[in-house]
Amino acid sequence: MTAARPRALLADDEPLLRDSLERLLAKVWPELDVVAMARNGREAIDLFEAHRPDVCFLDVQMPGKTGVEAASHIGRRAHLVFVTAFDEYAVAAFAHGVLDYLVKPVEPARLAETVTRVQERLRNAQPAHTEALLAELAARLQKVSAVGPLRWLRASVGQTVHLIPVEAVDFLRSDQKYTVVAWRDDARRPREAVIRMPLKDLGAQLDAAQFAQVHRSVVVNLSSIDRVVRGANETADIHLKGRDDVLPVSRNYLHLFRQM
Amino acid sequence: MAVTASSVRLRGITSLLSGPRVLLAVGVPALFGGLSGLLAGAPAISVTIGHAVVMGVAATLAFEWLERRPKRLPAALPRWILQLVGVVVAVPVGVLLPHFVHMGVDIHAAHEQAQLLSLGFVAFGGLLFAPWIALGAMVRQRDVFVRDQALKFELQRSELERKALDARLRLLQAQVEPHFLFNTLANVQALVDVGSPQAPKVLASLIAYLRAAVPRMQEPGTTLGQELELVRAYLDLMKMRMPDRLDFGLQADTAARAQLCPPMTLLTLVENAIRHGIDPCEEGGRIDIEIRSSDGRCSIRVTDTGLGLASSGSSLGTGLATLRERLQLAFGGDARFDLRTVEPHGVCAEIDLPARQATQ
Q: pTM of the entire structure?
């Protein structure tokens, strides 16, 4: 009756935890046949396609593709059990849903409960999870590593790529397809570097409370401004602290510097 | 005189002659001119007053203009001397200019003896008093400047104190991540379950890591030697968790081990390399830590061959930004912290500190 044995895939990037789960499952669910072990989300997908197991135990945080991404790929073709270390966002999502999940370190009693539930579902044929829930879970995980305003600029000085903290940037000036970054090193010396990204795209990722566009081709760090001198014809010049550069302010942006 | 000064631009003048200075430039000479006129018995006292006022304005403009121009002076010529000379020159010019105008209007009245006498009084008085008034103005200005500076320093100091407190609070918040802790504990449990002889060693590493990673606020600095032990414990734990994906090497001068640094300096760099370089990379990679001291400097270099910066989101940075801030607070502008990408992929973080040894 080997054909009737349920088959499982285990995915975790940490080998000790993979082995440990396999051992625990052997005790709690002796008839389960673990047919594949994956080390990351991509392998989980490949091995799922190769073996078509009935149950997948997926670690949530894995390199490359996450467990949730692998789950979205597998969809309703297998029963899914997520395994996660403490992670309040993910756990909240699981707890509100009907998804099965285990928290690391896995307790045998808790595993036995989950196994009972999965066995029941196997008998009733249809996996219980929904796509909507998975999408929500993926969104939650995304939010944890959400992209806020840029904190570091990657810019080249000669052959070297530097990571420049945005607060060390005095201003950005567009130079055809590139952007010139004027910044200060840790000794506060003024320096320049180049980013292969147009100013338009770069400016959009900066914190608007800290950086202001003052000209079609200039974005300035407001805290680097020493003074703004009005010129003729509705323009002005920005003088910077400890830098000789003078930046133009064009008419469209002059309203930023009206007196209080 | 107003024509000469207009090179400072029109709005320059309005800003030059403002508030109390206008009062000084017009009021005092007016009073003085009136007095001179009366003493000399000049027939048109208003004319003398007019002359005196023009003189006063001329002297004030000279004083103020030379306060700003020329922008650079030879070292041998202090600005205050230039200003005094300017005032002394401006006084006779300021008297003669209206006198020429007066001559043009009515040469007889302008050359009456009483009128000339009163002008003499005005010019003499101007030469006598204007330099003192100018000196007084300079002293007062210096007072205001000194008070301004003191206020600025005070502000800067409180700002620094606030920043130091902020950095410490953030360090406190950046405690051991639950995700790391529970994952590691799960590994330890796995080892214990199978009775692995590795288990006690791993537990010892975890304890060493936790003891150091729970921040101790009262300690302003640790030594790189202590940091190295902490990092070794951390890397041993990570190596247990991802044996097939992590390799590492530690190299440090004996001399560099006594170097003082803010707590968690090295750990922040290494944790960052794991979190953003090695962990998200399917193949993993290698972390190399090199610590060298030479010529009164100490350099710390952490290089990883992980994913690099391409795919890390904004979460990269919180720890590093805090570290940068703490280095600035501890060493002022004398600490350098540089991050650069490594070919073909990976990141190299380098810190360069002035040598500061623990005293014991």
A: 0.65
